[in-house]
Design goal:
The protein has eleven helices and 13 strands. With 318 residues, it is α/β, with parallel strands linked by helices. It has a seven-stranded mixed beta sheet. The radius of gyration is 27 Å and the shape is elongated.
Length: 318
């Protein structure tokens, strides 16, 4: 068994265009001993317009851009790349691999070449599963630092080598090899075939999606229950009460604590206060703690902040 780690750099990337300029790869045996390592440079046949993952310009590749013109375009490298990635005896891996697979797909379409056909794994997705953290896509640099791996970013072969070292360190930490890591976390490889791409999947990701759906449903139920009380009692509030002129807003998590939020909003109405879901319109903001978009909006209009635990303590003392 062998591992093939790869990384791609592009001169420019748009929605339906990815002009590749470098394909870096590292081939190892099952113990991560390097068997082959190369940076295949490619004439992108286009200008360099370099952006980071967020689309901001200013990214600099550690190459002399004029040198790329000395190399042939993508079709000349296609056969070798295809042989590497479609090797049935190898497991193909990358970092944020979906991006690179998409670049390959776009280049084959650009030059009217047959589709790639291979399965791949993603060290970024491995990390998400081992950390049980699916909300944030962790960069190679962050993983490398956490696992004690050094590398030069954005040189394709160095990124491929760093991906290999990160994978090796992750497997060592987990006490497994790659196939065992895949089995341990129920990971399904990504796949490309006939220009169609399927993303990686796992037991943990599906469980996370189910939990998020449950949380969303619970939030919707709590939201409905809270605003049912608000709409019912808003026009019945006491005129001239002690809270006359006060407009309250709660943080979303406080609104979702229906047992206390409905009791609190009724008390506000009974004392002549009002309630709004728009923090920019309130003069009193209640939350578990400081921070968040609603908090910033409320503070921006000079609203007073009252911690919920302070109110809970007062309610319990009554």
């Amino acid at each position: 068994m062998q591992y093939v780690f790869f990384d791609i750099e592009c001169a420019c990337v748009f929605k339906n265009v990815a002009k590749m300029c470098a394909f870096g790869y590292v081939v190892t045996d099952a113990d991560f001993a390097v068997l082959e390592k190369e940076d295949i440079l490619i004439d992108p046949r286009g200008k360099f317009r370099l952006t980071d993952r967020k689309g901001k310009e200013g990214l600099v590749l550690p190459y002399e851009y004029e040198d790329f013109k000395k190399y042939p375009p993508f079709p000349a490298a296609y056969r070798k790349i295809k042989h590497l990635l479609e090797n049935k005896e190898a497991i193909v891996l990358g970092h944020a691999t979906l991006n690179d697979v998409n670049y390959l797909n776009l280049e084959t379409k650009r030059y009217h070449l047959p589709s790639f056909r291979f399965k791949w794994h993603d060290t970024q997705f491995f990390w998400m599963n081992t950390e049980e953290s699916y909300e944030r896509q962790v960069g190679l640099g962050v993983m490398a630092e956490a696992l004690g791996v050094e590398f030069t970013p954005h040189r394709a072969v160095d990124d491929a080598f760093a991906t290999m070292k990160v994978c090796e360190a992750l497997c060592r930490r987990e006490g497994v090899n790659v196939p065992e890591l895949v089995e341990k976390y129920g990971i399904r490889a990504g796949k490309i075939d006939n220009y169609q791409i399927k993303t990686p999947d796992s037991v943990g990701l599906r469980r996370h999606i189910e939990e998020k759906a449950t949380q969303k449903a619970e939030h919707a139920k709590a939201h409905e229950a809270f605003y049912r009380v608000v709409n019912k009692h808003m026009n019945r509030r006491k005129k001239g009460g002690t809270l006359e002129g006060k407009v309250f807003c709660f943080s979303k998590d406080v609104e979702d604590e229906v047992e206390i939020s409905t009791k609190l909003v009724r008390a506000i109405f009974e004392a002549g206060g009002k309630y709004t879901s728009h923090p920019g319109e309130c003069n009193v903001y209640i939350a578990r703690g400081k921070g968040g978009v609603r908090y910033q909006s409320a503070m921006g209009v000079g609203a007073a902040f009252i911690p919920l635990d302070q109110i809970e303590a007062a309610m319990m003392a009554e």
